[in-house]
């Protein structure tokens, strides 16, 4: 999202100030969530053997069947990992080191680059924090466009290296995101000719003007991981998100048909790809955005870097005509990324249902009423189920 795009303040509980996590030897009540269900203790799970069918798919982008495998993963999971994606391990190491050095700064220094109440860029708790009564065990740094201004405040004499790495990462991620978009759209039978929703009137490069927000997330070691939440369950307001996670596990995705949380194990040099809400919309619900969260660890610090990729902010996003017809009418009204973020800032996970078209015949159409393991993977997010005792997710098995 280019910096010219206006910010979208979140409206709910007041945002909580940042603090020095290292100084807390016990988990304060304000951070105590109801005990987490699912695999909450990352280290324990690392030693558990998971069966194939329960693991998030890993796709080798050099595999001639990559497009087909990606389609299957999007339909069944809304998330997959990629290897041989073309982004060098050394760049992933460099961005991780950038994040580590940023979060290792003293709190007072980090607060010099704090995200303002109506801003997007800068240091602070996750934007969604304001929707939850309990605090999250994490801190973040969001970068839209150039980080120069904030980097100067953080490292007055030594900011150029950080800026150069961020720029290189933005470029590499943008290229990969566009490649992944074509693979995902290709798996739905969509080609360049079918995609006219973005900038170019000829449809030549529909991703012209598409860009990404970089989100550095830090999850310090935590005295009581069973009661703490790193980042609460959410879907991303993106077309797709590319996530690099350090070697400590913590990312979990919600497997809707099984009703359970599944850990996504870090793969050295691999990247996690999440389907976001905007892809959910353009695919007319065929590929659902995935609920995910981050849990924390008793002894190990964890870092993740998300590249939240979306279209040019004022371009209308809507179900692709080729994916809707009389039997499967468009499920969502047109919306720009900018407008979507504004609604998300006010209504959080009710956003998809708020832009859903009120059409009775749409009831069973999301994700093509697919039966997976005998259960419909319903994503009519107008009904609610509880995915855990902390988060009520607006999703249901109809
Ligand atoms: C483009 C954006 C997506 C995001 C809100 C934002 O304006 C910038 C930060 C993004 C992020 C990263 C962490 C998780 C998340 C839910 C949040 O609180 O801030 C996402 C937002 C999103 O996808 O809605
Ligand atoms: O840290 C993680 O694994 C998840 C981060 C995330 O979901 C995000 O930045 O949107
Ligand atoms: Fe996310």
Overview in brief:
One of its GO terms (molecular function) is gibberellin 3-beta-dioxygenase activity. This protein is α+β, with helices and mostly antiparallel strands and 398 residues long. Helix content is 23%, strand content 18%.
Low-confidence stretches are: 2-6, 41-52, 367-386, 392-398
SSE order in H/E notation?
HEHEHHEEHHEEEEEEHEEEEHHEEEE
Which CATH-level-2 architecture?
Sandwich
Q: What is the helix tally?
A: 9
According to CATH, the fold-level topology is Jelly Rolls
First-residue to last-residue Cα separation: 35 Å
Would you tell me the structural class of the helices and strands? alpha+beta
- Helical content stands at 10-25%
Bound molecules: ligand L37FFZMX, 2-oxoglutaric acid, fe (ii) ion
For the biggest β-sheet, the strand order reads: 1-2-10-7-12-5-4-3
Q: Give the overall shape, derived from the CA principal axes.
A: globular
CATH class membership = Mainly Beta
> Main sheet?
8 strands, mixed
Number of domains: 1
Instruction: Give the mean pLDDT.
Output: 85
Compute the CA-based radius of gyration.
20 Å
> How many extended strands?
18
- Tell me the fraction of residues in β-strands, as a range: 15-25%
**CATH H-level homologous superfamily name:** B-lactam Antibiotic, Isopenicillin N Synthase, Chain
């Amino acid at each position: 999202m280019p910096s010219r795009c206006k910010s979208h303040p979140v409206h709910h509980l007041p945002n909580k100030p940042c603090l020095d996590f290292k100084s807390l030897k016990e988990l304060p009540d304000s951070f105590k969530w109801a005990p987490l269900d699912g695999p909450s203790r990352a280290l324990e799970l690392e030693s558990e053997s998971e069966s194939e069918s329960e693991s998030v798919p890993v796709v080798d982008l050099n595999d001639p069947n990559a497009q087909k495998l990606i389609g299957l993963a999007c339909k069944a999971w809304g998330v997959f990992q990629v290897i041989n994606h073309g982004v060098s391990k050394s760049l992933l190491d460099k961005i991780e080191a950038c994040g580590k050095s940023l979060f290792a700064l003293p709190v007072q220094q980090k607060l010099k680059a704090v995200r303002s109440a109506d801003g997007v860029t800068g240091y602070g708790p996750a934007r969604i924090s304001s929707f939850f009564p309990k605090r999250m065990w994490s801190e973040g740094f969001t970068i839209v466009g150039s980080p120069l201004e904030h980097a100067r405040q953080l490292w007055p004499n030594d900011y150029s290296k950080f800026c150069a790495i961020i720029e290189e990462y933005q470029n590499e991620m943008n290229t990969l995101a566009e490649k992944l978009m074509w693979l995902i759209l290709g798996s739905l039978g969509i080609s360049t000719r079918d995609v006219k929703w973005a900038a170019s009137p000829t449809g030549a490069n529909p991703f012209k003007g598409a860009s990404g927000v970089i989100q550095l997330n830090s999850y310090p070691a935590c005295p009581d991981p069973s009661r703490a939440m790193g980042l609460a369950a959410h879907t991303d307001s993106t077309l797709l998100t590319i996530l690099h996670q350090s070697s400590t596990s913590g990312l979990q995705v919600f497997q809707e048909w099984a009703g359970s949380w599944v850990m996504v194990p870090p793969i050295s040099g691999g990247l996690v790809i999440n389907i976001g809400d905007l892809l959910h919309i353009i695919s007319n619900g065929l590929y659902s955005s995935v609920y995910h969260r981050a849990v924390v660890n008793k002894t190990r610090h964890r870092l993740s870097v998300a590249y939240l990729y979306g279209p040019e902010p004022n371009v209308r996003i809507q179900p692709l005509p080729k994916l809707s017809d009389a039997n499967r009418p468009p499920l969502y009204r047109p919306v720009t990324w900018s407008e979507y973020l504004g609604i998300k800032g006010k209504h959080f996970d009710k956003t998809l249902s708020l832009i859903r078209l009120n059409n009775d015949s749409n009831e069973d159409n999301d994700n093509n009423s697919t039966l997976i393991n005998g259960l419909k993977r319903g994503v009519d997010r107008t009904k609610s189920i509880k995915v855990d005792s902390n988060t009520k997710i607006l999703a249901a098995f109809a």
